[in-house]
Amino acid sequence: MYLDFTVAIPTYNGASRLPELLERLQNQLYTEHLSWEIIVVDNNSTDNTAEVIQSYQENWQSPFPLKYCFEPKQGAAYARKRAVQEAKGKLIGFLDDDNYPLSNWVAAAYAFSQNYPKAGAYGSQIHPQWEVEPPENFQRIAPFLAITKRGDLPLIYKASKKLLPPSAGLVVRREAWLESVPNNCILTGRIPGNMLTSEDLEMLSYIQKTGWEIWYNPEMEIYHQIPYWRLQKDYLIPFFKGIGLSRYVTRMLSVKTCAKPIAFFAYIINDIRKILLHLLKYRSQVKSELVAACEMQLFLSSLISPFYLWQKGYFNK
Q: How many domains does the chain have?
């Protein structure tokens, strides 16, 4: 028997962050008419995540269950796949362990599914909760840190725009996932020593490709906690390198096989154009200024993405 909704929380070493998230989920409003559950997917944590969840389970008083499962394959794609396997909900709402939803998040997520039955997935309005204030020009790259504010009205993501929501605060219709997302995707998510990412965009591209709509729902609001170290160059440069190196996969998913050679060269030319324009505009700042350096890393990594992925054997998947 299926439930109305599952909140899935993939986590890696999230013992210190999970309590606030679980408290917020316990205090969700307007869910009396819903049957729902929470599943924490421990993605091979090395801290005391399991003990934290066990302690909550022993004292759990809410009418909806709190479940725990362990996924040994590290990578967000594996954790989300495990969540879908374990979930009983017709809808699965993904919250990272540093995503703190407003008190109506679950209710707003369910209501949207009823009003937009063709929506295979839809993202939240995501506000930053900075530990330290970012540089003034940081808004140029802020969306890459899962900060999404696209107005106060629902918005459809058109395939032609090549833009999709992040996985933080994302709700996926279980039916859409099962009929669209292959068992083995190319991208699996960041792990220690490998910043290759965009596994969420690959998953959403498959859902969109099979005809489901992808939406932005501003009524679902979350706050994304961003610690100071995520604004440091030592984190951001590898982060943007990982995004760039992943891009060939997400770029080509919607391209027909016969058109891929043309698209390949078109993307190469466009990436070179972006690099040259960036150098002309910022010159020496591409090394010294944080945002310009991140953008340059993204353009360079996007250029070499197909060659990197081929060399590393990702296409063998």
A: 2
AA letter at 265 = F
Range of the domain at 102: 3-231
**Residue 64 resides in a domain:** yes
176-180, 184-188, 218-222, 295-299: least confidently modelled range? 184-188
Whether residue 142 lies inside any domain: the answer is yes
pLDDT reading at 30 higher than 90: yes
In this structure, the answer to whether residues 274 and 191 fall within a common structural domain is no
Q: Which two tokens stand for residue 91?
A: 């809808």
Number of other residues whose CB lies within 10 A of the CB of residue 140: 12
Give residues with Cβ within 8 angstroms of 18, minimum separation 6: 9, 11, 40, 49, 52, 53, 97
Q: Which residues contact 51 (CB under 8 A, 6 or more apart)?
A: 15
CA 250 to chain centre: 14
Q: Where does 104-212 show beta strands of DSSP type E?
A: 119-130, 155-156, 170-173
Query: Cα-atom radius of gyration of the chain, to the nearest Å?
Result: 20
179 and 293 housed in the same domain: no
Predicted model pTM: 0.94
Do the beta carbons of residue 200 and residue 76 sit within 8 Å? yes
Cα(68)–Cα(278) distance, integer angstroms = 47
In a domain, 241, yes or no: no
- Asked whether residue 14 falls in the same domain as residue 119, the answer is yes
User: Token pair for residue 11?
Assistant: 């986590």
